[in-house]
């Protein structure tokens, strides 16, 4: 009778757990999530056709205290699948070979590494093999773009024949039987998503918050759209406020913040809409694209709202840039802190001066695609990466901007000295 007695003590709307936010925009807050929140969240995710099926094997390498990881664990209960835990992300490649998963729950940085490895292999290839591999990736990219435009992808035996060996080699690195990767936590670069799709790797981007028990939107496997985080999960709602903020409503929205009624009232309005703090747009089919954090928008002296994440993504799309942080709030122009991709830079540049010139070229190329007030006028090259150990990135590798700016205050101040020249690399 012990189980029945214990069950009688717990109500559906009782708090199941308190999970703290990552604190990317301020002090972490404890989110009170009820049993009903989790049960509804499970139902929503499992009603996405083809996302998870019985017999799936999932490799999970995210911190188990994170709501994304906890959701994956709880999904075991109603669905017959296996979760393999990889406690060290540095050993993920080995785990993929050992487990041969059908799904990987991951973050953008891991997928960017897969892309970089594949492109480096293509670039190193010589002779006929190199030419065939280069042609294969070009053909794959063309097909991805055709599908985006609603056109039929290229066909033909020759086209399939040149792509298949490359897809097999990339797929083998991921275990050989991957159905898709589910990616969240931060924005995935468009070029990464396109290249992986061209290489036969399906990536399903999703979006959510601790405050809505993990998932608000996710791309369905059969109709995913690159660059979006998908439509609302079944049973949930997503809307855009007049100022562009993303709103979420449904039974997965949390009870409130632990010990902070004022913050709770600010987060969830009288109509039940959760104000996410993110800025985004919905396309006519309900697919959401996140453009920035509302608090991260930089207001230029000319009054223009600039999205730093868009510029950072463009900078980090270069093979020579590992991480980028754009600053400029209350300043006369935008500046950037760049962490070089040392392996790629060292292959091209012979010394520090050539490395700075290489990165200046990257910044200039990105500026060419931006409006005048969005352009990066100066940049500094950092001697180390932004690190989780220093509190500068979250467990899902999102930058904690305020912490980064505090830790690199001297470098930032140097970018705004009166004698500064545009596009100097410090």
Describe the structure in your own words.
It is a single chain. The chain has 426 residues and is α/β, with parallel strands linked by helices. It has helices at residues 2-8, 35-46, 67-74, 92-99, 108-124, 127-148, 157-173, 190-198, 261-267, 308-316, 342-348, 352-367, 401-407, 409-414, and strands spanning 15-20, 30-34, 57-60, 82-85, 103-106, 180-183, 203-207, 217-218, 237-240, 245-249, 256-257, 274-282, 288-293, 298-299, 305-306, 321-327, 334-340, 376-381. Strands 4-3-5-6-7-8 form a six-stranded mixed sheet, with helices on both faces. Strand 9 and strand 10 form a beta hairpin. The radius of gyration is 23 Å and the shape is globular. The N and C termini lie far apart (70 Å).
Quick rundown:
With 426 residues, the chain is an alpha/beta fold.
Furnish the topology, listing elements before pairings.
Elements: H1 2-8, E1 15-20, E2 30-34, H2 35-46, E3 57-60, H3 67-74, E4 82-85, H4 92-99, E5 103-106, H5 108-124, H6 127-148, H7 157-173, E6 180-183, H8 190-198, E7 203-207, E8 217-218, E9 237-240, E10 245-249, E11 256-257, H9 261-267, E12 274-282, E13 288-293, E14 298-299, E15 305-306, H10 308-316, E16 321-327, E17 334-340, H11 342-348, H12 352-367, E18 376-381, H13 401-407, H14 409-414
Parallel strand pairs: 3-4, 3-5, 5-6, 6-7, 17-18
Antiparallel strand pairs: 1-2, 2-11, 7-8, 9-10, 10-12, 12-13, 14-15, 16-17
Helix pairs in contact: 5-8, 6-7, 6-8
């Amino acid at each position: 009778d012990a189980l029945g007695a214990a069950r009688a003590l717990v109500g559906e709307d009782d708090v199941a757990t308190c999970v703290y936010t990552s604190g990317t925009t301020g002090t972490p807050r404890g989110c009170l999530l009820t049993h009903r929140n989790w049960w509804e969240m499970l139902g929503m995710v499992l009603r996405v056709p083809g996302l998870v099926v019985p017999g799936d094997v999932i490799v999970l390498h995210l911190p188990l205290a994170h709501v994304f990881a906890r959701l994956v664990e709880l999904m075991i209960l109603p669905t017959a699948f296996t979760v393999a835990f990889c406690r060290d992300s540095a050993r993920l490649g080995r785990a993929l070979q050992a487990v041969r998963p059908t799904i990987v729950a991951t973050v953008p940085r891991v997928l960017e590494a897969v892309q970089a490895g594949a492109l480096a292999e293509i670039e190193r290839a010589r002779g006929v093999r190199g030419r065939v591999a280069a042609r294969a990736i070009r053909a794959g990219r063309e097909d991805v773009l055709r599908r985006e435009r609603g056109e039929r992808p290229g066909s033909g035996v020759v086209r399939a024949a040149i792509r298949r060996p490359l897809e097999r080699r990339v797929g083998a690195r991921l275990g050989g039987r991957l159905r898709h990767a589910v990616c969240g936590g931060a924005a995935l670069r468009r070029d990464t998503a396109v290249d992986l799709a061209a290489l036969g790797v399906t990536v399903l981007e999703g979006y959510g918050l601790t405050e809505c028990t993990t998932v608000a939107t996710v791309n369905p496997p059969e109709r995913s759209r690159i660059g979006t985080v998908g439509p609302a999960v079944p049973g949930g709602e997503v809307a855009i406020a007049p100022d562009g903020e993303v709103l979420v409503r449904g039974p997965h929205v949390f009870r409130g913040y632990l010990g902070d009624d004022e913050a709770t009232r600010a987060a969830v309005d009288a109509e039940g809409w959760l104000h996410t703090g993110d800025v985004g747009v919905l396309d006519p089919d309900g697919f959401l694209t996140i453009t920035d954090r509302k608090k991260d928008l930089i207001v230029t002296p000319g009054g223009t709202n600039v999205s730093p994440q868009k510029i950072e993504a463009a900078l980090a799309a270069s093979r020579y840039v590992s991480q980028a942080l754009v600053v400029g709030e209350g300043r006369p122009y935008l500046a950037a802190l760049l962490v070089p991709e040392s392996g790629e830079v060292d292959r091209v540049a012979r010394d520090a001066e050539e490395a700075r010139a290489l990165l200046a070229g990257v910044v200039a190329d990105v500026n060419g695609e931006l409006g005048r007030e969005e352009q990066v006028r100066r940049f500094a090259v950092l001697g180390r990466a932004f690190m989780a150990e220093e509190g500068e990135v979250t467990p899902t590798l999102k930058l904690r901007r305020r912490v980064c700016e505090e830790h690199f205050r001297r470098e930032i101040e140097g970018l705004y000295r009166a004698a500064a020249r545009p596009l100097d690399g410090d």
